[in-house]
Design a protein that fits this description.
Elements: H1 11-27, H2 38-57, H3 62-88, H4 94-120
Helix pairs in contact: 1-2, 1-4, 2-3, 3-4
Length: 122
């Protein structure tokens, strides 16, 4: 396994970036009147996930890192909720949202695993 030299080497951060990218791409198709509504909410929540993983990685103490990973988890749940609501109000189809939701589930498991690992090593 290659040595981790940066947060960019973390698979969890990379997966977070992939999810955020997917969210930016699907929201391009949302109506323009949603630019300050659902489009903005989804993009902010999605971008917050890898941003918090990176910020936590850069902190001096492990407990701070775990705290930022938990914030990333919260942003992930917020994102999932916005995606589900987007389908319910017909801004997106299930066919578009479900693959991203599946990636969110995988990312959530990765975050939980990293948090458990870091918490048990304290």
């Amino acid at each position: 396994m290659p040595e981790i030299q940066s947060y960019r080497d973390l698979r969890v951060w990379q997966k977070g970036m992939d999810v955020a990218e997917s969210c930016y791409l699907i929201t391009r198709e949302f109506p323009k009147e949603e630019i300050y509504g659902m489009t903005s909410q989804i993009r902010r929540a999605a971008a917050s996930i890898p941003a918090n993983i990176a910020e936590g990685y850069g902190r001096e103490y492990r407990a701070e890192y775990v705290r930022f990973l938990r914030i990333a988890q919260g942003s992930l749940k917020e994102l999932e909720t916005h995606l589900l609501l987007s389908v319910r109000v017909k801004l997106a189809t299930s066919q578009i949202a479900n693959p991203i939701l599946s990636e969110c589930e995988s990312l959530g498991k990765m975050l939980a695993s990293l948090i458990r690992s870091l918490s048990s090593n304290q």
